Amino acid sequence: MFATTMKRFLLISLIAVTAPDHSACAAARAQPRVAGITTVYHHNSHADVILSRLTQTDTLDFKGQVLPVKLVSLYVDQFPANDIGRQIATNYNIPIFDRVGQALTLGGDKLAVDGVFLVAEHGKYKKSATGQTVFPKRRLFEQVVKVFEASGRVVPVFSDKHLADNWTDAKWIYDQAKRLKIPMMAGSSIPVLWRYPTVDVKRGAKLKEILAVSYHTLDAYGFHAVEGVQALAERRAGGETGVASVRTLVGDAVWEAGERGEWSPSLLDAALSRLKERPLPKNVTVRELMKKRRKDPILFTINYEDGLRAHIMTLNGAVAEWAAAWSYDEANAQIESTLFWTQEARPFHHFSHLLREVNRMMLTGKPSYPVERTLMTSGVLDACLISMKNGGKLLETPYLREVEYQSDWNWSQPPPPVPGRPIHGQ
Question: What is the C-alpha to C-alpha distance for residues 59 and 324, in angstroms, rounded to an integer?
C-alpha cells in the first residue's frame, strides 16, 4: 500500500516538474504549497472535506493516497463553537493568519504560495433578495487579487462551487481572473461524480432537450443541478454558445407546462428511473406523491441560444438524488439518462475526484475544465431565482448570451469509493 502510494506521488511530482506552469514556484517544487482561504472550518464542512484531505490523505483517515500539494497557511473568516480549524492548524503546524493577504504571503511582503483554495460555502451570512446565502466570495477574491498585483505574478486559484451568488460579483471575479491571466477553476464535484449507468452526451451531438431532477435548497443544491446540466450541455455540437432566457415555475404550473408540451414527460420518467438510493414507490406517480406530501415542484427552464432547452425539476418530498435524461435532435429522438451519485457518508469520496482535477491545475498551471462553466452556472442560477421572485416571468438574459466556450474535458467513471462511515456531528 505504501509503495503504491509513493509511486503515485513520485509520478505526480514528476509531472509537476516537467509540465509548463504559470507559477515559477510551482515549477521549482515537487509539492506545490497552497493557502486555504475559507469562511468556516467545522466537521464535515466544505473546508473539512476539501482542505483536510491535504493533511489526512484523500480518505480523511491517513490510510489513503497522499495528495500532491501541501497546505501551508489558513485564513478562516468565522470561528463558531464547533470550529476545528484551530486544532487542524495546531496538529499540522499550519499558521492561521488574520488577513487573507497574510495567508498568501506567509506574513511577508510578497506572494509566497504556489496556489490558492478559496472555500466559501458554510457560515452565518445574510441572505440575498432571491434567497441565496451571500458568501463573501468577492471580498475574499479581491484580497487575493491585491496580493497578485502587488507581487507582479499569479498562481492558480480554485473557488469552491459558485463564483458568487449574483451575476455582478460572479462576472467581476471572472473578469479579474482573465485580466490577470490567473489559472482558475471553480464549481463542485457534480461533473466528476460516479454515473449509473456510465453514459455521457455524445461529443459533438445535436441535443434537443435535457431534463434533470434535483432536491433540497435551490441555492446550494440547485447550483449542483444546474452545473450537472451544463456539464452535459457543453458537449453538444458547437459547444456552449450562450443562454437567451430562463423561467421558473412553481406548483401546479409545473405540471401544466408539461401538459402543454413545454417539457418532456418521457425525459422525466427516464431520469426518475435512475434513482438508486431512494427510488419512487411503486404504483404512484411523482405528481401524486408530491401532492400527498404537500410539496410544490419547482421548475427551472433554460433556453439556450442555439435552441436547446434544459429543465431542472426540484422535487422535494419525492426525490433525494440528482439524475438527468436527454434527447438527441435526431429522427429517432434517442433518450439517454443517468444518475449522478454522491457518497452521502464520510469520507464523501467524491471530493477526492474533484481534488484530482484541481490538483492537476495546481501542478501544471492549466485548468482541467473552463471556469466559464461555473460563470454560466452561477449566472443561470441567479437568473432562475430572479424569475421565481418575479412570479415565474420569462427573464431575458442578454449577458448570458455572451458566455461562449469550448471544453475538451471528458468525464470518466471514477474507481469505486472507499467504504463510507456514519456521519457524526454534521
Answer: 28
Which residue is it, cell 480549524? 85
Helix (H) or strand (E) holding 311: strand 309-314
Residue 380 inside a domain? The answer is no
| pLDDT, tens only, 127-137 | 999 999 999 99
Q: Tell me if 379 is assigned to some domain.
A: no
**Tally of CA atoms within 13 A in the half-sphere of 24 that contains its CB:** 5
Contact 76, 96 (CB under 8 A): yes
Query: To which H or E segment does residue 3 belong?
Result: helix 2-18
Residue 253 inside a domain? The answer is yes
In a domain? residue 234: yes
Q: Which residue has the cell 429543465?
A: 311
For 254, the domain range is 192-341
Q: What pLDDT does 6 receive?
A: 39
pLDDT at 15 (0 to 100):
34
Mean pLDDT computed over 246-261: 98
Q: For residues 383 and 187, give the distance between their C-alpha atoms in angstroms, rounded to a whole number.
A: 18
**Total of domains in the chain:** 2
Residues 31 and 104 in one domain: yes
Residue 121 neighbours by CB distance under 10 Å: 19
User: Do residues 163 and 197 share a domain?
Assistant: no
